[in-house]
Amino acid sequence: MPKITINGKKIDVAPGTSILQAAEQLGIEIPRFCYHDKLSVPANCRMCLVEIEGGPPKPVASCAMACGEGMVVRTDSEVVKKARKGVMEMLLINHPLDCPICDQGGECDLQDQAMGYGFDRSRFAENKRAVPDKELGPLIKTVMTRCINCTRCVRFAEEIAGTPVLGQMNRGEDAEIGTFIDQLVQTELSGNLIDICPVGALTSKPYAFKARSWELRKTETIDVHDAVGSNIRIDARGREVMRVLPRLHEDVNEEWISDRTRFAYDGLNNQRIDRPYIRNKDSGKLVEATWDEAFDFIKTKLKGVKGEQMAALVGDLVELESIVALKDLLGKYASENMDCRTDGAQFDPAQRAGYLFNSTIAGIEEADAILIIGANPRWEAPLINARIRKTWMEKRIPIGVIGEAVDLTYPYHHAGTNMDDLVKLAKDYAKKVKAEKPLIIVGSGVFERTDGMAIHQALYDAAEKLGMIKEGWNGFNILHRAASRVGALDVGFVPGKKGKSFKEIVDGTKDGSIKALYLLGADEFPAHSEIGWKTFVIYQGHHGDHGAARADVILPGSAYSEKDGIYVNMEGRPQLAKRAVFPPGEAREDWKIIRALSAVLNKTLPYDTQAQLRSRIYEEWTHLENIDVVAQAQWKKFGKKGKTLKADFVNPVRNFYLTNAICRASDTMKACSESFVRQTQDVLEAAE
Amino acid sequence: MKKPFELHADYQPESFEFTKANKKKVEKIIALYPKGRQQSAVMPMLDLAQRQVGEEGAKMDPPVGGWIPRAAMDTIAQMLGMPNIKVYEVASFYSMYNMAPVGKHLVQVCTTTPCWLNGSDDIVKSCKSHLGIGMNETTKDGKFTLMEVECLGACVNAPMVQINDDYYEDLTPETMKEVLDLLGEDMKPEVGSQKGRKASMALSGPTTLKETAKKAKVI
Question: Torsion-angle region of residue A647: left (phi > 0), alpha (psi -120 to 50) or beta?
Fold first, then answer.
């Protein structure tokens, strides 16, 4: 443990700690551009210079210098200040003074540090250099003249995203960052390039010239575009969401977010349902209505409908409170026909360990062997994939895939495509495998077949055989895709003993056994074609998508940015989302709508405030009370004995950019889909 | 300054493959580096590719000197298991890798201080007027490309030029023309000092360390 003194303060640090990190631990700020604590250290910006007493007779780059025993470091001496001023002057030689029209203005590292180390005038009389801008797709805007060649983007693309297409070309004055061959950066994490760029060279294209950072209202909340539960900050102005940024949460998303999380926000303004609608009996068209009319209409329609003739489905983006409220409402009718698995997945929801990401997301880094089954984590949860890649980068662990062989940004052994291959693998490796902490990641898509229950049990057996379950280690993980799913499963929004599952409910609408169906944000299946026309359908949600297309009455709800709520991510981690903006028009918070409807139906639910509703939730499901704490689930047998089919696993996500109602309404996501997914498909088709 | 890379230029061939003889050389080059460090072979392989293109180009009409097409960089990246961009980075960084076609004889005139003090400006002028081209241009017959470079480390015999692999030193505008004329007729002018000096000794022979020079059989 080297002892080091920085500015007279002593500190013990772990071997290998750099001076910059040690100073950070002491709370001493050292300016930097190229250094980023999640990336490798190139030491090329030279801004973090410090003086080592008795060391080399020149300032030293503190990011790349490891602490030595007894080192005495000064970060505030005259030598250091002069050196940093020199570096800053050098960086500003070719940097345009266009801060007033630069989107990074106000949150720019270079701007901030120029306040501390810059001169008030330039001594550089020559022409500044100009660098041609690069085309990086519909998400990232480039102004390469502003680039200071810190190479953070190059390292991010190579190390974190695993798509090494960026590089530094040429040398000296002609040095520039680019892809050289006009390639797009094909990664689901490309938006993070904007965050790590310390200047305004890489900025957000959809956000370009829309707002200044200091005029935005910042709300710390949770993302719903996948089941990771990324911590985000929504920046809004007035009633409009202007942009979405990541927040640091080492156990969930570190400091990255996926492109869907970051750029789908423009979908919040399109295709919105901002008032109730009732389908006219004669014309078959949806007609605007008031809340009272809509509620009265529901009341008349539900008259005489028995409990077992009612059913409810919840979609992918719904928060926990309204799920519980809807469950309670169905309970008042003694109906058990409810399901949250609108993708048609069939698995045994009785055991919590059977549907959680048990190892936790941070736990991936402890694994020493990973087997991915029937999933493309790169598209189903890009941040899980980034974690797997991080683990592979650090330890080069063996990774196996059973299912479709797709590019996951790290090498893996393709061990098969169907259930039989897994059984064989489990048999072969049961004794041979040396891994201490093996991990299995099962895509939720594998259950979307008729043999889902049997697969669930086969997976239990395989996990046991492969030694996934040990004292203090549970390596059995289900990779969910919907933000609402685990929460809904936790509160038991699944068919009761006599209840009907998703498939049975849909079939029930056709044979007439289901007379009324409540869709709470259920947009992930083609309701228009699948639900029988005789069933009375209530749709409550925020976007005019699949669900609304079939509805007989539409109740306008709010999107994730417009309501407070609890979301439980795939690990079983409950997190609080906060309201950033108000819902449009007459839309209301979802649980309030259900509560109000219950009063109209004379089945009044026993809570008037969200706090009361939450204490109702915490009473029955105590583990959800501890926000941001993962309650480990007990490992017990799950699944149902049965024969598994021979069919190959199929990855459920075919287009990363269009997976939910918000994305489908987003122009940015459509553009991404056009330039990234279509292009790849064309190439693949041409290859075939 | 070398010519910049052009992605969509007509001259970029669609594919590149090392010749049989060069493939053997490639194996030898890669074997020089420890396992897992094969990427270190990228520089000698780029050089090999450039030489191969140059050898093939010399037989063409008009002739072409050695340069590295994009296809060659992609091939090398694939052979070494590294991202394409890493090869582009290396190739674009070093001035001796040509990213665009050059003439059969690449005339690189040193204009750094010692050469400049000894009249490199006149050498540049005589090259330009004799070949009828400016800097970074190629003659119509494809035989010469003129290029300005920084110090090539032969300051003692300044001014000097490098033409392909050979140094021509102690130049005057006249001797420069002679060298170019001989090369233009596919003859081989004598390399090294054009004043008749041996290495960097004085014209009259060594003034010091005479015994050592004798032992080494330089005089």
Answer: beta
pLDDT at A26: 94
Whether chain B has a CB inside 8 Å of the CB on A411: the answer is no
Is the CB of residue A341 less than 8 Å from the CB of residue A449? no
Nearest to B86 by CA among B33, B42, B35: B42
Query: Quick one: which H or E segment has residue A240?
Result: strand A240-246
Q: Is A181 on the interface with B (CB under 8 A)?
A: yes
Residue A55: its pLDDT value, please? 80
Which residues in chain A are closer than 8 Å to B1, comparing Cβ atoms?
174
Preferred mutation among B6, B86, B92, B149 to probe A, highest tally of A CBs within 10 A: B92
Neighbours of A275 (CB within 10 A): 17
Instruction: Give the residue among A429, A437, A417 at the shortest CA–CA distance from A366.
Output: A437
ipTM of the complex: 0.86
Interchain CB distance below 8 Å, A167 and B70: no
pLDDT digits (tens, 9 = 90+) for A458-491: 999 989 888 888 888 999 999 999 999 999 999 9
Kindly state the helix (H) or strand (E) to which residue A4 belongs, with its residue range: strand A3-6
Q: Are strands B192-193 and B166-169 parallel, antiparallel or unpaired?
A: parallel
The alpha carbon of residue A631 is apart from the nearest alpha carbon of chain B, in Å, by: 42
- Please tell me the pTM assigned to this model: 0.91
Asked whether the predicted pLDDT for residue A688 surpasses 60, the reply is no
Map tokens 């002739």 to a residue: B63
CATH (residue range B105-193): 3.40.30.10
d(CA A633, CA A636): 9
Residue B51: exposed, middle, or buried by beta-carbon count in 10 A (0-12, 13-18, 19+)? middle
Close Cβ partners of A51 (under 8 Å, ≥ 6 residues apart) = A59, A60, A73, A74, A75, A77, A79, A80
**How confident is the model over A626-684, as pLDDT tens digits?**
999 999 899 999 988 888 888 899 999 989 999 999 999 999 999 999 888 766 666 55
Q: Which pLDDT belongs to residue B65?
A: 92
Do B162 and B152 meet the contact criterion of CB atoms below 8 Å apart?
yes
Are residues A105 and A99 in contact, defined by beta-carbon separation less than 8 angstroms? yes
Q: Tens digits of per-residue pLDDT, A325-368?
A: 999 999 999 999 999 999 989 999 999 999 999 999 999 999 99
* Segment among A517-531, B18-32, B145-159, B187-201 with least mean pLDDT: B187-201
DSSP state of B216: T
What is chain A's mean pLDDT, rounded?
92
Nearest residue of B to residue A165, measured between CA atoms: B85
Q: Which CATH number fits domain B20-93: 1.10.3470, 1.10.10, 1.25.40, 3.40.50?
A: 1.10.10
Angle, nearest 10°, between helix axes B70-80 and B42-58? 140
| Range with lowest mean pLDDT among A36-45, A288-297, B202-211 | B202-211
Nearest Cα of chain A lies from the Cα of B85 at a distance, in angstroms, of 6
Percent of chain A with pLDDT over 70: 98
Residue with tokens 């009319």: A293
Residue A167 is nearest to which of B70, B88, B94, comparing CB atoms?
Answer: B88
The domain segmentation of chain B, as residue ranges, is 20-93, 105-193
> CA–CA separation, A223 vs A205, rounded Å?
21
Q: Which amino acid is at A643?
A: K
In this structure, what DSSP letter does residue A66 have? B
Contacts B89 to A, Cβ<8 Å: 167-169
State how far residue A161 is from chain B, nearest Cα, in angstroms: 14
